[in-house]
Every structure is written in C-alpha cells, then in structure tokens.
Amino acid sequence: MPPGITTLAADAPQLSAANTGFMLICSALVMLMTPGLAFFYGGMVRVKSTLNMLMMSFISLGIVTILWVLYGFSLAFGTDAGSVIGWSSDFVGLGGIGITELWDGTTIPVYVFAVFQLMFAVLTPALISGALADRVKFTSWALFITLWVTVVYFPVAHWVWGAGGWLYELGVIDFAGGTAVHINAGAAALGVILVIGKRIGFKKDPMRPHSLPLVMLGAALLWFGWFGFNAGSWLGNDDGVGAVMFLNTQVATGAAVLGWLAYEKIRHGSFTTLGAASGAVAGLVAITPAGGSVSPLGAIAVGVIAGVLCAMAVGLKYRFGYDDSLDVVGVHLVGGVIGSLLVGFFATGGVQSDAKGLFYGGGPDQLGKQAVGVFAVLAYSLVVSAALAFVLDRTIGMRVGEDDEISGIDQVEHAETAYDFSGAGGGSAPRTTAQAAGSAAATTNKKVDA
What we know:
It is a single chain. By secondary structure, the protein is mostly helical. It contains 16 helices and two strands. Helix 3 (110-128) packs across helix 4 (138-161) and helix 4 (138-161) packs antiparallel against helix 6 (178-196). The longest helix is centred in the last third of the chain and has 31 residues, at 365-395. It starts with 16 loop residues before the first helix and ends with a helix.
C-alpha cells in the first residue's frame, strides 16, 4: 500500500460467495488429479505392478492431508521467517482460524485457501512415484513422502508463493506450480533414482504399458482436473485473469499433443496413444507457470515447444543410464523448466502482471529471475531428495528384494493382484469346453421337459 493511503472499512475485501464456491469446485478438481495420476501411471506399468502404482499415489492423499493440518500449512504460508520458511501458531492444527476470516488480499476464507493448497501438496509427491515404479518398498515410500513434504515441498512452496518468500519477493512468476510442483517433483525423482538404481532388466526386457486405455483415462482426468489447478490459482475471477488461464491451459495442451505426435511420427513413424497422453501432460505442465502471463498465441508456442522437447527428453534415460520408469524427469522436470523459462520470452505484461518477456520488449530481466527460480528449486530438491533416499536406503531399505521385484511387487507389498484371471467368482477353476457343453445340454433338456 502506498504511504499516506488509509484503507477504509468500506474498502476492505468482503467474502464473495461466488469466488468461494468457485474455489471449492477448483479444490475438488485438483483432488481428482491425484486419482487421475494413479490411473495414468497405473496403466503405464506392467500388470504385476499395477496396484502398487495406484497405491503410491493414493497414500499421498492420507499422509499429506494429515501433515498439512498439523504443521504443513503453517510452514508453507505462515508468517515469513528469513524468507525461507513460514510459521503461524494459529495455523497449527488449523484451529485458530475464524470460519469467515479472509485470506489476505482475497475474497475467500482462509479455510478455502488452505484446502486448495492442500491438494497441490498432495499431488506433488505423488508425481515422484512414477519414476520409482516396480521396485520400492511401500513402507519406505510412505516414510519418504512424510519426510519429503516436510523438508522440501513446504519450504519451496513458501519460497515461491508465501508472502516474504525469497523467490516471491524476487519477482519469479509461477502462476500455478512450474517450480514448486513440477520442477520440484521432477528433480526429486531424479535424485531418488540415482540412489536406488535401475529396475532389473532395464534396457533389456520389454517394459511396455499393460493398459493404454487406463493411461488415456488417467490423462483425461488429469486434463479435466488441471482446469481447477490452473484457473483456480488466481483465487477468484473478478478480473478475468483466471478465465485467460483456463483458455491457455486448453490451448497449450492441445498444441503439445500435436507437437509430441508430430515429433513421434517423424522420429519413429507412428502416432501412438501413449504419445498423445504424454504430450497432453507435457503441455499441462509447461503452461502451469506461464499461462497467466502469455496470450493464447503464446500458449500455442509454449505447448508446441514443450511437446517436442519433452518427447525428445524421455529418451535421455537410455543415453545416460538412469531408470526413470514412467518419464517423470522427461515430462515434469523438463516441462516445468521449459514453461518457467518461456515466461521470460512470451510474457505480454497485460494479464497476470506488467512484467514483459524478451519478445514483448521487456529485456532479459524477467528471464533472469525465472532462471534463478528454476535452478534454485531444481538444485535444492535434487540434493535433499537424494540425501533422504540415501538415508532411508541405508537404514530400512528402499528397494524390495530381487526375487520380489521379479515375481511382482503387487503380491509382495499388498497381497493382491490387479486382475483376476481365474474366472468369475475368483477362486473357482475355469470350466473346460466339454463341461460347458454338458451344462448347456442339461439346460436345454430341462427346457424341453418343461
């Protein structure tokens, strides 16, 4: 607020039922993204790992929700301490908040803001799980989530979005999570897989997706939920910025699908459903930080660039020998970097803020800020995540045994399998053709006798 200007009571923000309802819907959409991610990842693994992949996402809904209430919201969005972390005793347990108390500068209650941001916190560690498919103990994964959100996600969220956070104060633009969510998760995935190593048979055995329809379903749910993820991050739509972000989300995603498929056709000769789904996610990732700063034409450029470069990046694991099972590094880390840096080129200065990119006469200043944000989050998450994985691996162990990995992690870790191939009723043996024919004949005779 400029010096000498006094805010009158009549000028203070008032609770908006419209914005509050909108944000609750957006929160529900973001929550849906975690089950959507579970299906997306679950379809991409082999049959023997399907349930474990689903559970690695679903367990985040339980763990992170409780941690967020206990102390996560306070660490991420409490009163700033040294520009690196927050803390407010009223936020601990979410017990010291009035039900109509407004989040600063908005027309929505604190509780609504808290639940919206909770869904981001739930999704982010779930993203990491795709890089670790087929080989991680479920108990170790649950403990890793607990530690990781505490020492990585909550502080980084404060850096990027918390009032007083050092990247926030620097002027880094991250509309909905290019750095705090996608670079953060992608760098963490890389750090962990460098510690725990490759799957047995990596680069030797075929490890194709077992259910491409499940992949497409998951991608569709992610795309649908992402409208809440992105458009909701403006915390209302009184000025139309959220509507621009909604449009740009659709535009960039469509462009990324086309970019990925075009690259795939030129490089490999086919348009694949896996490529279409992966391209959609790459576009969603890239537009997440940039969509509030660019025009729809800029969103097309962001989408095409992300689609092509992410398609190229997924092959790097074979060249450099790191086993990123489901391309978390290639899509989320690379896509997050692309989207964050492209703000420095395509920001128009007429939507989210007045910051302009290089192509709109803004000079290199914003690009430099974006680069600082990108590499600070990348380095911090990579190093700390690798350290956490190293400690867990040397203490309780991160990986299942070799025999268990080969036979299938679902049965070992969950005592279940995704599909029952024994026939209807589960435990019964399948009938032979002769038995089936005999049964049919008996039924026919009964009808004749009747």
